[in-house]
Amino acid sequence: MKALIKYEPGVGNVELREVAEPACGDNQVKIEVSFCGVCGTDLHVYEDTFRNFPPVILGHEFSGRVVQVGRLVRNIQPDDHATVLPATAVTCGSCSFCRMGYFMLCPDRRGMGHGVNGAFAKYAVVRSDQVYKIPAGLSLAEAALCEPFASAVQAVLQVTNVRLGDVALVSGPGPIGLLCLKILLAEGIKTIVTGTGEDAMRLEKAKMLGVDTVVNLTEQELATVVAEETKGAGVDVAFECAGAEASAANCLRALKPLGQYTQVGIFGRKIFLDFDQVFYKQLRVVGSVGYTTSTWDRLLKILEQKVVSLDDLITHRMPLERWQDAFKLCERKQAIKVLLSPS
Ligand SMILES: [Zn+2]
Ligand SMILES: [Zn+2]
């Protein structure tokens, strides 16, 4: 089968190659991939700024049709439509974090698409406990967004305490920022979304989703807008979703005393911040990395109840052969979610 492979360490070293089809073990499920989304992590693996273990097939945000199940598998059947929790491909299962359900923090963890083979390929084989049957009425395209949605669900609903009446700031209108925004809007939270001139198309999407206030930092002063929107008080919660130093500084500055700062984006390098603001404003700072299985149970209920939809964040669908165009669109912020189809 054709697969998008990082074939050796270093910058780049990614290409479509013919590889052997994976075999399905007793406790495994073989999925014919319908859609696999391009994620910032894929770009980082390409650039070698995210830990990876070549040779490895990229891609981890996917959905597809089950074509084979091992003889011990009970939770899913051939022909079922499925999506996959990709981050648990390898965990030790016995460290304190694994035992608490926080597998993201397991020192031995390897996720699909960088640690083990991912889903930019015709087929992917996964353990049966990683597979979720798609709720009725959810399309395979929308289901490919479950994985990034999980990161937003954990950040907004599980790690941060946001309540009706709060004013939230989402800094960085990329896919995860917009997914956080969707949840905040569904919860009825007044929200401000910020981005730079480069993010124009994504800020426009935020407006279409119904956000109260959009700030284009190339043209407007955030402090002025925050003062107007909060009667000078500052925002209650801030979600840093850009992984950018200036964005983190904006969040710290925009927060009111006793506010909450949630780190959702990855900087990928050391940054310089006025951290005394955490002290003087007695902020609560927390990180949100990935998700737990409880996040997936919750997000599937959210999608089943149709209180949040994901399909309007899909801006492009392309065959896997056009992966370079897809990566470029994401890199240049000209897309929100690009889905690649192997067949
Ligand atoms: Zn991702
Ligand atoms: Zn562990």
Describe the structure.
- The protein has 343 residues and is of the alpha/beta class.
- The chain folds into two domains: 2-145 and 310-341, Quinone Oxidoreductase, Chain A, domain 1 (Alpha-Beta Complex); 150-287, Rossmann fold (3-Layer(aba) Sandwich), CATH 3.40.50.
- The chain has helices at residues 40-47, 96-100, 140-143, 146-159, 175-186, 200-209, 222-229, 245-254, 276-280, 293-304, 323-331, and strands at 2-6, 14-18, 28-37, 56-57, 61-69, 81-84, 123-127, 131-133, 167-171, 190-195, 213-216, 235-240, 255-263, 284-287, 314-319, 337-341.
- The strands form three sheets. Strands 3, 5, 6, 7, 8, 15 and 16 form a seven-stranded mixed β-sheet that branches. Strands 11-10-9-12-13-14 form a six-stranded parallel β-sheet, sandwiched between helices. The protein has a three-stranded antiparallel β-sheet with strand order 2-1-4, with no helix packed on it.
- Strand 9 (167-171), helix 5 and strand 10 (190-195) form a beta-alpha-beta unit.
- Helix 4 crosses helix 5, helix 4 (146-159) packs across helix 10 (293-304) and helix 5 (175-186) packs parallel to helix 6 (200-209).
- The protein is globular.
- The mean pLDDT is 95.
- Residues 39, 41, 60-61, 147-148 line the site of one zinc ion (ZN).
